[in-house]
Amino acid sequence: MTDLSSENCSIQCQLHQTNQPLDGNCLLFLIILGKILLNILTLGMRRKITYQNFMDYFCISLAFIDLLLLVNISIISYFRDFVLLGIRFTKYHICLFTQIISFTYGFLHYPVFLIACIDYYLNFSKTAKLPFKCQKLFYFFTVISIWISVFVYVLGDPSIYQNQKAQNVYSYQCPFYISIQSYWLSFSMVMILFVAFITSWSELTTLVQAIRITSYMNETILYFPFSSHSSYTRSSKKTLLPKLIICFLGTWLPFVLLQVIILLLEVQIPAYIEMNIPWLYFVNSFLIAAVYWFNCHKLNLRDIALPVDPFVNWKCCFIPLAIHNLEHIEKPISIMIC
After folding, report:
1. FRET pair for 16, CA 20 to 30 Å: which of 49, 75, 259, 314?
2. In sequence order, what are the residues at sequence separation of 6 or more whose Cβ sits closer than 8 angstroms to the Cβ of residue 294?
3. For 43-72, how does the pLDDT look when each residue is reduced to its tens digit (9 = 90+)?
4. 3-class secondary structure, 245
5. 243: DSSP letter
6. CB within 8 A of 138, min separation 6: which ones?
7. What is the pLDDT of residues 118-164, one digit of tens each?
């Protein structure tokens, strides 16, 4: 009787240990699938533009890597144990592949941010203008190079996995890397927004109170009426800052609040989830606003091709108070365009 009960107990323990990774793999599959659907939705909602930049190419590559990870998880989960090209794949490779992707995503935040900064600076200053086809090839090989470099770094540094192996000893679950880069990058952007919001509070209040909703050329637009002799006609960093904040927060305010909640609650999000396309476009809009602010003295030049944001419309026309009916005007008088 004792032998029978102990045998049943061992069988139940084995079933519990085999079912637990499968449940985790199913949850991982649903998370990656949801992320891919979010990527498709974000890419579909973006403004169709012809302007090429590094961030667009990297977002497309990120969507491809996510899809590739989902395919690998699906194949291994379906066959469970198989040999391909002399390599035996089991369900535990799902955890291994996801860990490698998590490490890779976690180390990409700073390089992507830096390269995007350089890209916008060069395009705005026109210091290095390449032909359209050469520019596409340059962005393509830049994205491929950064992915390969980070993959080689992750696979070649044995110290990266020491912390993860220590966690595996005390847990049956598959641990994933939490990116420090994304935390400090998010913290820095939120603090910069907070300081900019505080320093331009009075100007923001004035602009918000003066906002009007009207129609022009069968499109609903927002405009800020003011006197023709107002000091807002000057293109300075002080007057440009509240306009940029309104444009930015008008699109990304829910995302900014989400970042604040994550930072305050110290929520630990795995790197394979945190590196996503909405986050990259949020960073992209922040960089464009920074480029506009640092180069405000060039915004009135007609030959400057301004960076185009897939989600934020940065062009604001400020019209004198004497003009009330915009439908009778062929082209609105642009006091200042940002």
Report:
1. 75
2. none
3. 888 877 656 789 999 999 999 999 999 998
4. helix
5. H
6. 130
7. 988 887 776 556 676 788 888 999 999 999 999 999 888 776 656 55
For the chain, how many residues are written?
338
- What is the Cα–Cα distance from 39 to 35, expressed in whole angstroms? 6
71: tokens are 């395919």
Contact residues for 330 (Cβ-Cβ < 8 A; gap 6+): none
Contacts of 310 (CB under 8 A, 6+ apart): 46, 47, 49, 56, 281, 284
Whether 44 and 278 have beta carbons less than 8 Å apart is answered as no
Is residue 176 a contact partner of residue 99, using CB atoms and an 8 Å limit? yes
Query: From CA 152, how far away is CA 159, in angstroms rounded?
Result: 14
Q: Specify the DSSP element, H or E, that contains 84.
A: strand 82-84
In this structure, what token pair is assigned to residue 332?
């609105």
Phi (first) and psi of residue 204, to 5 degrees: -65, -40
> Which residues are CB-neighbours of 109 under 8 A, at least 6 positions away?
179, 181, 182, 185, 275
Contact 332, 326 (CB under 8 A): yes
Tokens at 303, concatenated:
């030959």
**Residue 166, number of CB atoms within 10 A of its CB:** 11
Alpha-carbon separation of residue 189 from 21, 24, 97, 201 (angstroms): 38, 34, 31, 18
Residue 98 buriedness (CB in 10 A; 0-12 / 13-18 / 19+): buried
d(CA 78, CA 182): 33
Residue with token string 């390089």: 111
Among candidates 101, 247, 109, which has minimal Cα distance to 177? 101
DSSP state of 67: H
CA-closest candidate to residue 177, choices 161, 191, 158? 161
Q: 192-248: per-residue pLDDT in tens?
A: 999 999 988 888 888 777 776 666 555 556 666 554 444 444 456 777 788 888 888
- Our CA dihedral for 249, 253, 257, 258, rounded to 10 degrees, sits at -130
